[in-house]
């Protein structure tokens, strides 16, 4: 599909590593803005967000660490006191041991009449709301000692939490939880948005993310290449403009789903149905013969072929424009034959589920530029020869390693799905816990196959497919709730999303505001 001239490629929001944001901070200060002035801007922005989100709060507990993140907390405490709020200021490090801007900020809070006391285990949190200014983005090792005690006390309190820059205990680059991490209600981050706020453990700890640039234009620094880009809903309309009035099914490709070994027909059918709902011109399904009748009853628009083995496929793969292989494939001889036939065909591939497991075990060493691999952490671990825990400890690194080893584009599924391709890393922060149910990956593989069949370029198809899949799940959850959400619920919601003139846009806007 050629993108029309009036639909330029969208610019996705840049995300940075903590080291890059520190460099932006350093450059801003060297450019003439004092470090303490920048700290005051950050605290003022956080204070504004606090008042906007919790306008009726009358008392705060502010936990301050020993660095500049703690300094932001001290300044915010002073601002709150100036507006008449009761402020409890708890310190991990005595004011006498602070230095630089952090000391200046602590003195500012003291001058504003805010008392300070050292954190100690068992201390009561007296505010209606907690401000987390403990550890910031410089954390590299596991949280221990008093910091861990404070984090656990905040989480146990049940109080709403505003995290400054990042929830304490969360790794700013990977989103991994370093032993313990604050569960925030809202997180206000500054200067450059951080990759670690959107993947791994982050969705369970960040709450609502809000980015405040503080007047710093990170993208103007051309030598600081973003660590990733964040997918936003506007990508859908930009890449899927309305169809011309004289369109016909031949314009939108033919996708073939290979899957549904004996006893596993549902997964392949879910993929085929999602593929059809996302607009592929024709969809075929090659599945075990015993699944043909059920498939035709469920979705008669799909051309179903009963195949006892790869020999029954004949020229079917070559007649398709894209192949989706893996849903319900199994790892037996039937599945092995289907995958071997798919790999031999000169067609773009989407490989999922047991297709990935077979790649890791019986078809190792394959690398190609025209496929999308869609592993969850367990499958990613098998493909990399490591543990799922190692994958989750640094999801961005795992996604990049998979793409280097196997080529094409890799979709590392999970909370904050990552897409790694030649253009770099992208992250999807949409989706919900209702997606923790069987068949969701099968629906995604069908969506990806449909986009490739329609001529969407490989990496764009991966990004767009992940985004549509997540937003469809969010839409379905709004209509019926997260618990009990089924993969089969997504196809109709996804269809609405890829038709922007039909979609009412409710809830599809980016969750994080830019101030």
From TrEMBL:
The cross-references to SUPFAM superfamilies, in alphabetical order and at most eight, read: Ribokinase-like, YjeF N-terminal domain-like
The record ties this protein, via InterPro entries, to: CARKD, Nnr, Ribokinase-like, YjeF_N_dom, YjeF_N_dom_sf
Instruction: Pinpoint the YjeF C-terminal domain residues.
Output: 232-501
Pfam name, any one: YjeF_N
Q: Specify which residues bind (6S)-NADPHX according to the UniProt entry for this protein.
A: 68-72, 136-142, 165, 267, 328, 376, 442
Q: Which residues form the signal peptide?
A: none
EC number of this enzyme: 4.2.1.136, 5.1.99.6
User: Cofactor stoichiometry and binding?
Assistant: Binds 1 potassium ion per subunit.
Q: Which UniProt keywords apply?
A: ATP-binding, Isomerase, Lyase, Metal-binding, Multifunctional enzyme, NAD, NADP, Nucleotide-binding, Potassium
Cofactor(s) for this UniProt protein: K(+); Mg(2+)
* Annotated binding of AMP, by residue: 413-417, 441
Catalytic function, reaction form: (6S)-NADHX + ADP = AMP + phosphate + NADH + H(+); (6S)-NADPHX + ADP = AMP + phosphate + NADPH + H(+); (6R)-NADPHX = (6S)-NADPHX; (6R)-NADHX = (6S)-NADHX
Q: Which domain of life is it from?
A: Bacteria
What residues does the YjeF N-terminal domain cover? 21-222
- Amino-acid positions noted as binding K(+) in the UniProt annotation, renumbered to this chain: 69, 132, 168
Function as written in the Swiss-Prot or TrEMBL entry: Catalyzes the dehydration of the S-form of NAD(P)HX at the expense of ADP, which is converted to AMP. Together with NAD(P)HX epimerase, which catalyzes the epimerization of the S- and R-forms, the enzyme allows the repair of both epimers of NAD(P)HX, a damaged form of NAD(P)H that is a result of enzymatic or heat-dependent hydration.
Q: What HAMAP family does this protein map onto?
A: NADHX_dehydratase, NADHX_epimerase
Family the entry assigns: Belongs to the NnrD/CARKD family. In the N-terminal section; belongs to the NnrE/AIBP family.
The record describes its quaternary structure and partners as: Homotetramer.
Q: Which NCBIfam families match?
A: yjeF_cterm, yjeF_nterm
Protein name per Swiss-Prot or TrEMBL: Bifunctional NAD(P)H-hydrate repair enzyme
* Gene encoding the protein: nnrD
